[in-house]
Amino acid sequence: MKIKIRKESKKSSPFTQTRKLLFFCLFFLFLTSPVLSQAVDTGTLSLTATVERRCKIEINSSWLSFSRTSWSDQPQQIPANEGAFELVIKLTSNYNSTVNVWLMASSDFQDSSTGYTIPIETISWKAQGAGFYSGQLNKTSPVLVARLSGSGVFKGSLYFNFADDPKNFAPGTYQTTVTILVEGV
C-alpha cells in the first residue's frame, strides 16, 4: 500500500499579506532609523552667491626711459631701456563680453627746466600676446592696446620705442604720464 502525502498550502488573503509586509517595513524603519523614533524640527536655509565683474591691472614697471647714447644725424628708433613692458589684465566678466584696454597720454613730452616739448606720437610699441595690438601714443584720444573676451588672465608684452629726431629735439629730460584705461568691466 502506498500512502500519498499531499502538501496543501493555505493561502492567506491579499489583505493579510499586505498587513504583514507593511508591519515588516515599519518595524525595519523603526529599528534602523533613529530619526524616525525622535521628534524632528526642520528649517530652511537659502544661499545666494554674488560674483561681481572685476578687473585687476598688473604691470612689471611704472617707469620707462629712453636714452640717446650715440650721435646720429638721422632719425632712429630707440627702444626702452627697461625692455618689454609686461601688462597683465585679470578679468572676471560675462562669457560673451568684450573688454577694451586703452593707453592715453596726458600730454606731449616736456622738459620742465626748459619748457621744450617733444610730440608724444614719437612713442610707439609692438605688442605680443593674444588680443594685444601694436600702436602709437596720442594725447587727444585713447589708443586701443588690447581687446579681450570673457574671464581670464591676459598677458601682453609691449616693446616701446622712441622715434628720435636729433635735428629737431633739443637735449633735455622730457617726461609725461600714460594712463591705462579698462572699459567694459
3D architecture notes:
By secondary structure, the chain is mostly beta strands. The protein has a single domain, classed as Immunoglobulin-like. The chain is 10% helix and 36% strand. The chain has 1 helix and 12 strands; from the N terminus they run αββββββββββββ. The strands form 3 sheets. Strands 1, 2, 3, 7, 8 and 10 form a 6-stranded antiparallel sheet that branches. The protein is rod-shaped and about 115 Å long. The N and C termini lie far apart (103 Å).
Distinctive features:
185 residues; single chain; rod-shaped; mainly beta; three-stranded antiparallel β-sheet; 1 helix; Immunoglobulin-like
- Approximate helicity band: 10-25%
Q: What is the SS-derived class?
A: mainly beta
Number of distinct beta strands: 12
Low-confidence segments, ≥5 residues, pLDDT <50?
Answer: 1-11
Distance between the ends? 103 Å
Question: TL;DR?
Answer:
The protein is mainly β and 185 residues long. Helices cover 10% and strands 36% of the residues. It has one domain: Immunoglobulin-like (Sandwich), CATH 2.60.40.
Layout of strands and helices, then pairs:
Elements: H1 14-32, E1 54-59, E2 76-79, E3 85-92, E4 98-105, E5 109-111, E6 117-118, E7 123-128, E8 135-136, E9 143-149, E10 152-164, E11 174-175, E12 178-183
